[in-house]
Amino acid sequence: MDGVEIIAKSIKNSAIEKVFGIVGVPITPIAYELQKQGVGFFGFRNEQSCSYAASIVGYLTGLPGLCMTVSGPGMVHALAGVLNAQSNGWPLILMSSSISLNEIGKGGFQESKQMELAEHYCKKVYNVTEIDHFPEILKDAIETSLSNRPGPVYIQLPSNIIKSKGEANIREAAGYGSIAIKPILPDINKVKDAVELLINAKRPLVIGGKGAAYCRCENELLEFIETTKIPFLPSPMGKGLLRDDHPLVVGAARSYALKNADVVLVLGARLNWMFGFGKAPVFSPSVQFIVVDVDQNEAVNNPNVKPAVSIVGDARLTIAEMRKLIGDSNSMALPLSIEDSWWVNLKADIEVKTKSLMALMNEPQINDTDYLNYHKVYNSLRSFLFQEDSIFVNEGANTMDIGRICINQSLPRSRLDAGTLATMGVGVGYAIAAQICFPSRPVVCVQGDSAFGFSAMEMEVAVRYHLPIVFIVLNNNGVYEGLESMSDDKYTCSTESASLHVPPTSLLVDVQYEKIMQSFGGSGYSISTLSYLNELCQQIKNKEIKLPVLLNIKIKPTGTKPKIVH
């Protein structure tokens, strides 16, 4: 059997359903063979976007995405997605070609130290030295990627191995495709300690992160929160674990909840920069943490705080056991009363913050010549475009921060943003992967113009594979802010003058990003008024516009950063 056939059939019979890559010597035959075997191959324009797309597959589906690249620079470009997967705790397989084994150290085509590079970011690296070993290597790679704290692995395929022949024993899908990873069971005594701490708390709070979303604990979490009436606060990508409009969700009172809670159950989230490292002034100096995580470094050896209770275990199993123990305890402290001062103060803060936010969102555009802003645009999108099951990809600086508070999520794993690593450039790849994984769900990707620029060429991929994604660029002519005009001589007279006077945050003024999509055969529109935006959103929702589509929305380029009211 040819090497490419062994590789393709092994992938076919594994848990991997889709392959993302960019072809070239010597992996092109593998891509053709994958299609022959019935495995979808999605070709990208840049390995960076490709690797980001593959990385989010693990989060969305619970199975690792596969990113396939050529050697040398192709592999190095894909390390961006590998680092992203490692940082976020998502399963991913990077598979790259390399020079033939007999050419190592001789300056072969695209030779580089790929194994050494991958070791920095991967749970395990594999070098295939015989083609017959590939099926078992792939199986071990998938299991390693999924087990304990999920993460990336790397498989290296030397050119001569790809071209070789073998007699590998490729297992049938029934015995090989469903790799069951046993969840980590929590220590019951630790769970009891956590329950006791929650029962004795005066102002308890539960924080749910994307780790909780990854382990699919939304049903158990909902039951726990509704049983105990403890306020719930999601992380940015934890939004949707409980509906944002659930009465026990306190996202609108984020700052107040964090600062005043006395016991905080941290469920699959990290006390990192997103949560002030678990310290004052974001939290009370006397706060006690219960940390639940599959990663011992987060739960036990946390570098920022010393948890009162550390539980290494699966969030779904842990929260279910907590609910059972609280139910069996006959505690008078739980469930919390909505009349309790903790809830009264939270509700009061939610009312103030919500009123402030809605005032910003509902501010009219008095004249068509007035600039739009983030809040007005998001109000339009929320009213006319987003649906209950929409997947919201959100990337940028102000674009992402304000999008988090303006757009409600109803389902888990439905808000995809820059994540733990604050990675810029992920948006388009994420949107493409999300639409591939969930073809019947609406995917809306809202990015700043700078964020869009990282991967704008992938619009061609969306059109090529008929992906009905709505791409929206909030165009303020810059990073954070831009210029209203570049007509001044100091910007236009010479390269040297421009380099000295164009602000580093500025991009070109009024770039027609919609024409990029139009050039590939998709739909594109330039928008500067709310009425036109509302009209187009309604047409998209009614399926009256050919998708994919790109809406290039011009917003106010200058001024201070819009106020975030949470």
UniProtKB/TrEMBL annotation:
Q: Start and end of every Thiamine pyrophosphate enzyme TPP-binding domain? A: 397-551
Write the protein's name: 2-hydroxyacyl-CoA lyase
Tell me the GO BP annotations in alphabetical order.
Answer: fatty acid alpha-oxidation
Q: Which parts of the sequence belong to the Thiamine pyrophosphate enzyme central domain?
A: 191-321
Q: Which domain of life is it from?
A: Eukaryota
The UniProt similarity line reads: Belongs to the TPP enzyme family.
Q: Which reaction does it catalyse?
A: a 2-hydroxy-3-methyl fatty acyl-CoA = a 2-methyl-branched fatty aldehyde + formyl-CoA; an (R)-2-hydroxy-long-chain-fatty acyl-CoA = a long-chain fatty aldehyde + formyl-CoA
All copies of the Thiamine pyrophosphate enzyme N-terminal TPP-binding domain together span 1-117
Organism of this sequence: Dictyostelium purpureum (Slime mold)
Q: Which PANTHER family has this protein been placed in?
A: 2-HYDROXYACYL-COA LYASE, 2-HYDROXYACYL-COA LYASE 1
The record lists the membrane-crossing segments as: none
* InterPro entries xrefs: DHS-like_NAD/FAD-binding_dom (IPR029035), HACL1-like (IPR045025), THDP-binding (IPR029061), Thiamin_PyroP_enz_cen_dom (IPR012000), Thiamin_PyroP_enz_TPP-bd_dom (IPR012001), TPP-bd_CS (IPR000399), TPP_enzyme_TPP-bd (IPR011766)
Cross-referenced PROSITE patterns: TPP_ENZYMES
Q: What is its EC number?
A: 4.1.2.63
A Gene Ontology molecular function term for this protein is: thiamine pyrophosphate binding
Q: Which GO terms describe its cellular component?
A: peroxisome
